[in-house]
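Input sequence (139 aa), recorded before submission:
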Amino acid sequence: TTKMAPVKATKTSTKPSSGGKGGKKKKLVIRYVLDCTHPVEDGIMDVSSFEKFLNERIKVAGKTNNMGNNITLERSKSKVILNADIPFSKRYLKYLTKKYLKKNNLRDWLRVVAATKDTYELRYFQINNEDEEEDGDDE
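Predicted structure, token format:
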């Protein structure tokens, strides 16, 4: 989550907290949000079981249950928030989310979409032939 700043001619900065590339390394804090609002409101998904799944499955240095103090998961209403002090891939979070959906047979109805740079959202697939399906269900 680093932003590229325009390169300046002078390398030494007089400002103490310039946030540039020189000086001490800033502590890396990554924050990803998984927004499960839609499926939770419809009652097809449980956030607590999803959080438990992530806790069990997230690997650090190739080992599960190795999160320590580096990675924390918290739940607020229908969102799961992951904070990491070490490099953590957003793509890995998407992979685990899809794995959870497949395990609970929700993969056919839900997709994982990046809403913002640090947010994934669970959305329903858009089905265009709604009127055709309604006619077929009457049999």
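Checked by second reader. The helical segments are 37-41, 47-57, 90-103, 130-136.
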